[in-house]
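I am writing to request your help with a piece of structural work I have in hand. The matter concerns a single protein, recorded as an amino acid sequence and a row of backbone structure tokens. Could you please explain, in whatever detail you think fit, how the structure tokens follow from the sequence? Thank you for your consideration; the sequence and its tokens are set out here:
>
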Amino acid sequence: MRRSTRRRRTVSAYREGDRTVVLIPARMSEAEEQRWVSVMLDKLAAQESKRVLGDAELAERAERLSGQYFDGRARPASVRWVTNQNTRWGSCTPSEGSIRLSHRLQGMPEYVVDYVLLHELAHLLVPGHGPRFWRLLEAYPRTERARGYLEGVVAADRLPHVPGARGE
């Protein structure tokens, strides 16, 4: 949150690495501040959900995440989107070094896609889901949040479809 005495009415927000910066007028009340933070976070999430990474960008992202969280030790041979994974968010074949992410992740918040990428990258270092595997993922600060988000998506998919709900 950054307050500005020069700012009179406008509110804006942008991403700065893993942080979100919201710029507001200095005179704004705490209640207005909280409301605008919520509005701007929703607005940024909507903008990000419209942006879809291609396979090359996904591979670059995996490389960056491996460097940031695994000291560059996880080196996939290929990283790509697939449309044939409807029950998994991602998969990895360590012997081939290939990582595949479900197209259903496209449009989800960046931290969720990053978590799934890191999960699959961790499998290049530790094949199973034992304690060593989960210790690797502890380095990513949004692991629990991303897992909760994905659990919520799965739960919502199980709800009965009601016409008119969700703006239909």
